[in-house]
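lol forgot to send this yesterday, sorry. struct tokens for the thing we talked abt
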């Protein structure tokens, strides 16, 4: 890490940043001459900093603040090390960090540690998840009283329509996407294909699969920061909020995953299209945990505007082969690439918690030898299925009471997230839908 700074003498300051429970980067700006302090001794935040609400306020009922004296944690660099910050004008570096106790124990309220704990369960069984994420987002002109599509930098015109797989829509913002891909290269984020989507000014970029799920979550978290920062540099906003426009589809964050054994073989591949018993066991675990993990997949007031029948977001607990109306889809293709696509999460999620919930639920099913119901055929919205919670309060209560979640997440994290969301629910009830959108536009 010191070598990176020596090789980049133009850097004038660094940012150290960790993810809070909402996926917000919390951190400090440090002059580059004092970077060695963050590397050698770590940096210190109160433990409560990773448990703030969406406004960045303390949680009123949190025992972390007054009951425990708002004590500090020690934040150490992650394996990622330094990277450039392409959206800032002055040459700067970002150092991702995560939180530990004074005695070196991981802090259970850190979402990155929650995913690490799930991956350790896989390692104990000689298994390794392989993950890829698909992130949808909107480009938005928020300079006026209402949100709208940015004018084309090429023509100055606004295209007020969804444009699925339109090259013209991509070319309209080619300068932004070219700079974005260059920035992904600089930050070592594996951005792959970009497409235009069904919403106004909506796009999707896939991040390449890899056998390090912690890095996949890092990539998604950093990518969301990068897209929002680069959009502002180009004179408009980018947002991963679930539903900025009532009459158009919202944004999802789908994850594809398979699992390798100790010899590197895909344990979901049986040589045919149906997959192995381990695949169906993983599906069963995901289905069993789906209601309890709805708060992870839909963490905000605006999230539930996306989850309505027929709007490209799953609403029922079911699975199918090659069927995008189902919550869990088994894609077709070569058997060696047999995998599960989990389609429930919105673009506004915390990637660490989302991957922990998905992979943890799948492992629950494998450990239990669970069996799913029969796969769906036809339109999942018309099937008689158990329903994913469709309101925030129910999602919070279901998460808190879920036995599946207690197998995946530490008690402290469950408590902290529930307290956070109940505080946000209370204050969001006083706001109009437009005021909620304004809050979520830049935060999620």
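and heres what i got for the seq, position by position
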């Amino acid at each position: 890490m010191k070598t990176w700074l020596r090789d980049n003498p133009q850097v004038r300051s660094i940012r150290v940043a960790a993810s809070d429970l909402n996926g917000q980067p919390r951190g400090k700006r440090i002059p580059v001459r004092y970077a060695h302090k963050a590397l050698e001794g770590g940096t210190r935040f109160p433990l409560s900093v990773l448990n703030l609400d969406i406004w960045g306020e303390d949680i009123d009922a949190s025992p972390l603040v007054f009951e425990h004296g708002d004590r500090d944690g020690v934040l150490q660099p992650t394996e990622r090390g330094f990277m450039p910050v392409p959206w800032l004008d002055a040459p700067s570096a970002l150092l991702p960090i995560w939180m530990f106790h004074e005695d070196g124990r991981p802090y259970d309220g850190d979402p990155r540690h929650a995913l690490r704990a799930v991956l350790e369960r896989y390692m104990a069984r000689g298994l390794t998840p392989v993950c890829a994420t698909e992130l949808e987002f909107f480009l938005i002109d928020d300079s006026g009283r209402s949100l709208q599509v940015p004018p084309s930098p090429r023509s100055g015109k606004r295209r007020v329509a969804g444009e699925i797989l339109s090259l013209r829509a991509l070319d309209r913002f080619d300068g932004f996407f070219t700079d974005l891909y260059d920035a992904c290269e600089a930050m070592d984020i594996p951005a792959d294909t970009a497409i235009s989507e069904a919403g106004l000014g909506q796009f999707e970029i896939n991040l390449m699969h890899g056998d390090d799920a912690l890095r996949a979550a890092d990539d998604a978290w950093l990518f969301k920061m990068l897209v929002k920062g680069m959009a502002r540099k180009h004179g408009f906003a980018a947002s991963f909020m679930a539903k900025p426009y009532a009459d158009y589809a919202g944004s999802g964050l789908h994850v594809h995953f398979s699992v390798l054994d100790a010899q590197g073989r895909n344990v979901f591949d049986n040589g045919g299209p149906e997959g192995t018993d381990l695949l169906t066991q993983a599906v069963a675990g995901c289905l069993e945990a789906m209601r309890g993990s709805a708060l992870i997949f839909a963490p905000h007031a605006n999230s539930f505007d996306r989850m309505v029948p027929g709007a490209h977001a799953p609403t029922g607990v079911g699975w199918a082969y090659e069927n995008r109306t189902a919550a869990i889809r088994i894609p077709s293709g070569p058997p060696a690439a047999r995998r599960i696509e989990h389609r429930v999460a919105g673009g506004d999620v915390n990637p660490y918690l989302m991957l922990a919930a998905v992979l943890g639920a799948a492992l629950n099913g494998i450990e239990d030898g669970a069996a799913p119901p029969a796969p769906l055929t036809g339109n999942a919205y018309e099937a008689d299925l158990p329903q994913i919670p469709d309101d925030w309060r129910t999602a919070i209560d279901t998460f808190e009471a879920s036995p599946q979640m207690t197998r995946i997440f530490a008690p402290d994290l469950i408590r902290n997230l529930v307290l956070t969301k109940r505080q946000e629910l209370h204050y969001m009830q006083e706001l109009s839908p437009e005021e909620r959108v304004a809050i979520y536009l830049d935060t999620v």
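The first strand starts at residue 13 and ends at 19. anyway ping me if u want another try
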